[in-house]
Write a structure and sequence with these properties.
With 445 residues, the protein is an alpha/beta fold. Helix content is 36%, strand content 22%. The chain folds into three domains: 2-93, Rossmann fold; 99-301, UDP-N-acetylmuramoyl-L-alanine:D-glutamate ligase, CATH 3.40.1190; 310-443, Protein-Tyrosine Phosphatase, Chain A (Alpha-Beta Complex).
């Protein structure tokens, strides 16, 4: 088969290498600039590629096209491929054809990176041969091409689910669903919800679906799909016949006839949102028959991931926290909600159709000043200017200036919280780049 891969970043490189390993004729095209490290990888595997353009004859002449998740459906090349009736698949769909490992797949608007990392940590501590991939770490396709794992834990975005057909997890997890990336879904929340639920479309009776029983949107849409699999919900609001719930100061895991308790005070990750993440991860481990001792020890010793409520430094008794991965309103809500000290909040970036009204009560309660870090900050000023006071809001165009402005507002006992609510692409190459620049600016104070 002739395979065309669109996009020359982590996902596209992995798909191209896998196609090459499987003896297919492969060509990679990226209308932008391909990073030097990725271009070198393509040369190493002797994979022909182009950058800065799309050669339509080569792409339209392919038998199948693997599309990187960052490319929207509205891209002209995608429109031409659709019009020509070409079969377009995602990298995870393509890779799963060549992989027989068990897959634990996590999607959701918030918490999916932490939950994915927790499950990977649990399985590693249990001595399993496990790979970590998807929207985190190395691409799934690249690992299928170059490594051999018995299990994969995959963080999967809605964009990666958009072009799946036969892809099937053994354990599927939806952490929660809140408005996000609506610019990619015609500003229609229902389209985004349907994309998330694609993770369940091929589940069989032998598979397992783990979900947040307190998430109204998830529960409302469960009635619209047919699920033959085992269902394991988690809740902080009520006791459940099966799943995870709170009893006094403990998480109770109830799976089939087994009941296990975990003390909340022993969890490595604090905050209400991380209780949900820990519940989801623990249920996945129970579904895989991981020993209770391993579950307890793993949840007690897990280290916070970079760019997710990551403490950076305390300077003059002001704690600086990097939550650059908070690219939507709900993530920022959790970050603000768990703060116990007065907050100087750094927010802003590329707005994805955000509704900031849900944050106003928290801002009234917890935030003393706002530093806007973005090219267009009008919506932030409109949402919070009257609450905070325009004299306590400032606009900046770099991480360094944002940190300096925040330090000027902050007093001993405060927190400076980078939790942007927005995508990073107006000023940074990624949320990782934004977080790293923030940390460097803090260290330079």
């Amino acid at each position: 088969m002739k395979i065309a891969v669109l996009g020359g970043a982590e996902s596209g490189i992995g798909a191209a290498v896998l196609a090459k390993v499987k003896g297919q004729e492969v060509f990679l095209s990226d209308c932008g600039k391909i990073k030097d490290s990725y271009a070198e990888e393509l040369r190493k595997w002797d994979i022909p590629f182009e950058e800065g353009r799309h050669s339509e004859d080569l792409i339209l002449g392919a038998d199948e096209v693997v599309k990187s998740p960052g490319i929207p459906e509205t891209a002209p090349m995608i429109q031409k491929l659709r019009a020509a009736g070409k079969h377009i698949v995602s990298e995870i769909e393509f890779a799963s054809r060549y992989d027989s490992a068990k897959k634990i797949c996590v999607t959701g608007s918030n918490g999916k990176t932490t939950t994915t990392s927790l499950i990977y940590y649990l399985l590693s501590n249990a001595g399993l041969n496990v790979g970590l991939g998807g929207n985190i770490g190395k691409s799934y396709a690249y690992q299928v091409a170059t490594e051999q794992h018995d299990y994969y834990v995959l963080e999967i975005s809605s964009f990666q689910l958009d072009d799946i057909y036969d892809f099937k997890p053994d354990i599927a997890i939806i952490t929660n669903i809140t408005p996000d990336h609506l610019d990619r879904y015609d500003n229609n929340f229902e389209n985004y919800i349907r994309a998330k639920f694609k993770i369940t479309k091929n589940l069989s009776k032998d598979d397992c679906f783990i979900f947040d029983n307190d998430d109204e949107i998830t529960i409302r849409h469960l009635d619209d799909i047919i699920l033959r699999c085992k269902k394991l919900p988690f809740s902080q609001e009520r006791e459940l016949e099966q799943g995870a719930f709170l009893r006094d100061d403990k998480i109770v895991l109830r799976v089939e006839k087994d009941e296990t308790e975990l003390y909340l005070k022993e969890l490595a990750l604090g905050g209400r949102h991380n209780v949900y993440n820990s519940m989801a991860a623990a249920l996945a481990a129970k579904a895989m028959d991981i020993d209770n001792k391993v579950i307890r020890e793993s949840l007690a010793t897990f280290q916070p991931i970079e760019h997710r409520l990551e403490p950076v430094l305390s300077i003059k008794d002001v704690l600086y926290i990097n939550d650059s991965k908070a690219t939507n309103v709900d993530s920022a809500w959790y970050a603000l909600e768990c703060q116990t000290r007065p907050v100087v909040w750094i927010a802003g970036g590329k707005d994805k159709g955000n509704d900031y009204s849900v944050l106003q009560d928290l801002v009234k309660e917890k935030v003393k000043a706002i530093v806007c870090l973005g090219v267009h900050n009008e919506k932030l000023h409109a949402a919070f200017g009257d609450i905070i006071g325009e004299d306590k809001m400032v606009d900046t165009l770099s991480a360094s200036d944002a940190v300096k402005a925040a330090a000027a507002f902050a007093e001993a006992g405060d927190v400076v919280l980078l939790s942007p609510c927005c995508a990073s692409f107006d000023l940074f190459t990624s949320y990782e780049d934004r977080g790293k620049q923030f940390k460097a600016a803090v260290r330079a104070l």
